Structures are given as structure tokens and as C-alpha cells.
Amino acid sequence: MPTGKIIKSLSGFYYVLHEGTVYQCRGRGNFRKRKITPLVGDVVEFQAETIKEGYILSIEERTNEFVRPPIANVDQALIVTSGAHPDFNPLLLDRFLVLVEAKRLQPIIVISKMDQIDEQTVIRMNEYKDIYEKIGYTVLLTSVFDKHALDRIQSHLADRTTVIAGQSGVGKSSILNSINPMLNLDTDEISESLGRGKHTTRHVELYEIAGGLVADTPGFSSLEFNDLELDQLSECFPEFVEVQDYCKFRGCQHDKEPKCAVKTEVEKGTISNQRYQHYLHFVEEIKNRKPRY
Predict the structure, then answer these.
(1) pTM of the model
(2) Which positions does UniProt annotate for Zn(2+) binding (predicted)?
């Protein structure tokens, strides 16, 4: 039986890409009985009489999966934030990074709309670029008119499945349209009254872009740390992981403990104090979340 990848799920149909052709398939009845839902990104075995009449027979084991957006087998996340309209939000960026790190995805940070900001803000964005690159992240400053920056984004997409994440209005669909004008994805102007964009993307779909597959999604609609335990949080800050073996206490939470290597590095300025404050903010959030039964 042939295998393919689900690139779209809509109204009970699954669209499976196999050797350049997309087959419209339904899931087998026993999937429902076993409470298995095929996801966009799944590698599946299928059979099809025609391109409109196929059935998914089995789903290969997933390397990872997300609930919101519902997608599986992602290699990396393109986290798009903007220099303006909406304003750059480092706390939100760190929240996205934690969620992505928790799924063991490779994050790539894109700061968009660099053509729409003043000189002072350009300097500030470059300072943030330095902070995140020092941690080891790839940071791309871009605008939809900057061909060199768009080429750099494309080079990261080849042969990978990428989810594109970021708050509404930061220009996710605009960037994809600039890389591949044939996509013609919906974009929306910022709603001035709300100061944020409207959700224009309605379902998860994988698009073939620059030799890879990119998910244009309704975004990470859940940005809460519902599945993240307190002892896992510091693992999502690579600069903490680098020094935490030097903490006096095993399992140090880098909060109120004495002789903490992370706090020492923050005092020395080698770890960003702002990132550390965001970490403490997330610690409190996890401690205070309501228990689930």
C-alpha cells in the first residue's frame, strides 16, 4: 500500500500527498471506535480507487503532536513577531519559545515589519537579536520587501515540516505570500480599535514552499502551560540548561534557592535579566494554575 502525508483536514476528509498527487480520503471506521483522529502532518498508509475516493488504513507513529493547532510530526517552528503594529512583545516571544522547546522543536525567530519602525526601534530590535543569538537561536530581521531576508527564511524551510506561529497581525501569511505569491493566503489589516489582527486562517493546512512543507495555522490558540510541569520549565531555557549542573542543589528551580548558578549568571549579566524575570513569571503561572481532574 502507498504511504503519504496528510496536508489538509476538512469536513471529515483528509487530503493525502503522495508523489506529487493529492488524494481525498476518509478515515477507516475503526479509527473512531479506537478514538484515533488522523492529524495534518501524519504519515499514513492509504488505498485509493481514484484521487477522490480513498481510505486511510493506518497511521505511522508520530514524533510529536499539538492539540492547538492540531498537527503532528513537525520539525521546527518559525516564530513570527513584529517590530511594530503590534509592538514587539518579549514576554510573548519567550512564551512561544517555551511552548516550542517543550515539544523539542527547533525554533527560528523572525522579527517582521522592520521597514515600518523608527531608527530607535531598529537599534532595540538588533539588541534583542543579539540576546537571542547569544542563547543559540537563529534570529531573522525581515520585511516583505527584503528579498535577502526572505531568501534566508526559505533556506531554513527546505526538506522540513515547519509550523508558523505568532500572534495575529504580525505578518505570518504576508511572509508566506511573499515567498510564494501563488499561495494567495488571506491576510487582514490590523484592527485599529483592538490593536491586534483578526484571525484570517480557518484551518490547518500544509503548503509546499521552498522545498519543504509549511503549516499556515490558526496560531497557537492555547498559550497556557497546561501540560508543562514546574521541573520541566527550566529545560525550556537553553541558557539555564548550560549552567544548571553548577547549582548547589539538584533539581534547583532557580528561584529562592541559595548558590544557584543561573542567578549568579544573571547577576554577572551573562544571562538576560529580562529572560530570567519572564521565567519567574512562568513559574508563578504554573504554581497558580487550577488543578485538572
Answers:
(1) 0.85
(2) 247, 252, 254, 260
